[in-house]
Amino acid sequence: MKPQTERELDDAQRAELRRELMRSAVWPTEEEDAAITAAALADPDNPPLKEGEGALFKPARLFGGKLQAANVVVQSKKPPR
Length: 81
Hints:
The chain is mostly helical. The chain has a domain at 1-48. 40% of the residues lie in helices and 0% in strands. It has two helices and no strands. The chain is flat, with a radius of gyration of 20 Å.
């Protein structure tokens, strides 16, 4: 199927880039993955997601098409020295 609109073209390009990145990714060994998982579970400041919490996340594209940061505080003045 050939893309018809600019948005479909962008989606097709993104999908192809994603496929290329997945092919070129270097995945951890089982031992490295176990060490990473153990370190993550031991971090009290960042507990793992509970069952079903991942479904609360939405792709940024669903929020107007541009990446938007939530809860960002912009400081317009230079901090005191």
